[in-house]
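Table S2 (text version). Query chain:
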Amino acid sequence: MNVFIFRPHTNKTHMKKQLFTAAAVLLSVCGYAQTKGTSALGLGVNTSTSKYVTAENGVISENTNKISSFNLNYGFFIKDNTKLSVDFSYGQSKQGLVENDNYNEAKIYGIGLSYQQYFPLTGKFYAFAGGRGSYGKSKQEYLNNATDRPEITGDAFGLNAIGGLSWFVSRHWALETTLLSAGANYTKQSQTAVSGSSASYKNTSFDLKSGGLFDELGFKVYFMF
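Corresponding structure-token output:
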């Protein structure tokens, strides 16, 4: 006589398989953001306005300083935790008595190339370090009620070491901020002759300093795909 013994499938074994599968899925989701072949599209925006009031001989004047800057970035992970990116920047500022058309206005256009290496800290937080090369074209005008309106144009080149913090919120979204920037910058400026005058000048400068060629944006938002 043959005797068959049936052993029921235990819930413990089934639970182990489920936990293993869930852990594998979680790791794949968390690690997807920094893996080779991932693209990252980023946008940064920064705006600020400050005002101060002065009184002289009974005349009250309100000076305004408005700054707006925008940054569009595309990055590609050439290998796990290593990203190359290109970014385009635009900034504008107005300072002076804007309501009386007596102020100076500056605009800057820039392009930059960056290399970033990411290092895990805890959970979805990563530190990054790398380098950035950049070029910027600026134009500054002094607008007032007088006929003389000088215009200053400039070219700026920068090579900087950068470092910061990234938070990979989910599989497709991340926040990033630059906390450290130090390097070398070269600037060349020239002023065109003002109306009724032949005055003009050219100026070049080179410096080593902390802080980048452009003021860093507060943070950037990235969409990864």
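Notes on Table S2: The chain has one domain: 36-224. The longest strand covers residues 59-79.
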